[in-house]
Amino acid sequence: CNGCHGTSNTAGTPDYANAGAGVANANSHTKHTGAGTPTCVYCHSTTTTSGTTIASGSTVHTDNALTVVQGGGKTFGWVGGVGFKNCSNISCHYNGAAQWGATLNCSSCHAFPPATNAHAAHIQNSALLTTAYGNTEVASNGANYAFGCGNCHPINQSTYHANGAVDISLDPADGGALKSKNPVGANRTGTGGATVCSLIYCHSNGAGGVALTHMPSPAWNTPLTGNKCGYCHGNPPQYASVGAGVAGANSHYNATPNFMGKEGGHMITIHSDNIYDRVAGTGRLTANTTTDSSHGNNAVATTMSCNVCHSGIVSATTTTIDTYSMNGTASSFRCGACHTAVTTTKLQAGAIADKSLHVNGSANVVFEAALTMKSKAQLRDASKPATWTRNGTYGLTGSYDSAALNGTWNAGTKTCTTACHNAGSVAVTPTWGDTTVTCYSCHTSL
Q1: Residue 229 confidence class, pLDDT cut points 50, 70, 90
Q2: Please, are residues 186 and 198 in contact by the beta-carbon 8 Å criterion?
Q3: Measured CA angle at 428 (ends 427, 432), to 5 deg
Q4: Which pLDDT tens digit goes with each residue over 197-218?
Q5: What is the pTM of this model?
C-alpha cells in the first residue's frame, strides 16, 4: 500500500498535505490511523478488509474513483464530491458530523463539557482548560471548578478515543495533581447516570497518611445536597490523630478524656463552654446574641469557624457560613442544637469562597488577616497575657478580652503561632495533632 498511497509510513496512509476542508486535496487520513495502524476498512470496506491487502474480488481499486463505504463495525453517512466530503452520524464522533480535511476540537463531536449529568459541576468554565485528550490538569479559579477530562477518563488516545465506548479510568499511574493521589484500587461501579466512583482522592477527607479516607461519589446524575462539607471531611474532620506534626495529624476535634475531660479542638470559639458570669448567682453564660454570651454575639465572642484558619477558602458570611458542625451527634459543639431554619444564622451547609483552593491536592492553611479574636473567658489581671487587651471591667456586663490573631503557619513542622495560644509574653507554638495539649499548656499560671 505504501508504494503508492503513503511512502512515509508502513500502513500506506495517504500522507499528502491537507489543502483544506472539503476541497480536492483535503486530507484527514493521518488523524484516523494513529501510529501507522491500518484502519482503512472503517471507511473503505469494499476496497480492503484487512487494511493491508485489497479485498478479494474488489472492483473499486484502481477505478479512478474515491469509494467511501463504512465497515469494520463503524457506521456513518457520506456525501462525497468537492465542496462536500461530509460525514454524518459518525459512530466514532459521538454520532456527530465532520468534513474531510477540517480541524476538529473536543466540542466538534460532543459538547465540552458534555451537557449531561455532573459534567457541568466538574467543568464550570471550559475556557480555563486546555482542550487536549487525557488532560489531567486542575485549572479551577475562584469562581469555577475546572478539572481536566483526564482526571476521570483514560489518557491513552490511540487506544480509547473514538472507540464507540465511554471509558472511565481512575488509575493513579495516569498522573496529575489529583489523579496520582488515587489508590491503585480506585474504581467505578454502575453505568451512565448511575455511575459511582470509589476510592478517589477528589472525594476524600484530604487527610494524609493512614488517616486518608474516601467516600463514594454521589451517583453521576444525583447532585450532593445537605451537609456537603461533612460528607467528605467529617465537619469537622474527626479522624483520630496519628501523631503530632505528621501526615494524618488532626486537632480539628478532640473527644479524648485527656483534654481536661471535655470535648476540645478548634471548635466554635476560644472557651465557648462553661464560662461563668462574675455577677453573683447568675450561673453560666449561654450561647445567644445578648450582651453577655459565650458564643453567638460577635461583639464579645468570636466564632471559631473553618474560615479562621482556612481564610479565603471557605465562606465567612452569615448567609453561607457552615453551621452543620457535628450534625447528627450529641456533641455540645453540635450547631443544630441552636441553629434552625429560622434562626438569624440558619442551620446550613457551608460554601466554598475560592474553588481554586478546594480539591486542588493540597491542604491550604491561611489565617484570616486583620481578625481580632474576642473572648468572654477573661483571666484575672495577674494572669492575662500582655498581648491581650481588657475591654471593660473584668467579669462585668459587656466586658471581654481581645487580641489580634496574627497567625502564622509552618507547613513543614505543622506548627502555628496565634493569639489563641499565648502564655503571658511568650507565644506557645503547638504542633498540629498533639493530643497531649491541655489548659496548662498555655495557662502556666493557673
Answers
A1: very high
A2: yes
A3: 140
A4: 999 999 999 999 999 999 999 9
A5: 0.86
Q: What is the CA radius of gyration of the chain?
A: 31
Q: From CA 296, how far away is CA 338, in angstroms rounded?
A: 10
Which stretches of 127-262 are DSSP H helices? 157-160, 228-233
How far is it, in rounded angstroms, from Cα 98 to Cα 84? 10
Average confidence (pLDDT) over 414-439: 82
Amino acid at 245: G
Read off the C-alpha cell for 200.
478517589
Phi then psi for 236, rounded to 5 degrees? -85, 170
Res. 287: pLDDT tops 90: no
The C-alpha cell of 377 is what?
473567658
Distance CA 106, CA 267 (A): 46
Cell of 268: 466554635
Cα distance between the two ends of the chain? 91
Sheet strands (E) in 31-100: 77-79, 86-90, 96-99
For residues 420 and 250, the answer to whether their CB atoms sit within 8 Å is: no
Omega of the bond leading into 113 within 30 degrees of 0 (cis): yes
What pLDDT score was predicted for residue 85? 94
Q: What are the start-end ranges of the H helices in 123-224?
A: 157-160
Hey, what amino acid is at 92?
Answer: C
- Alpha-carbon distance 105 to 132, whole Å? 8
Neighbours of 417 (CB within 10 A): 17
Per-residue pLDDT of 100-118, as tens digits, reads: 999 988 888 888 999 999 9
d(CA 106, CA 174): 20
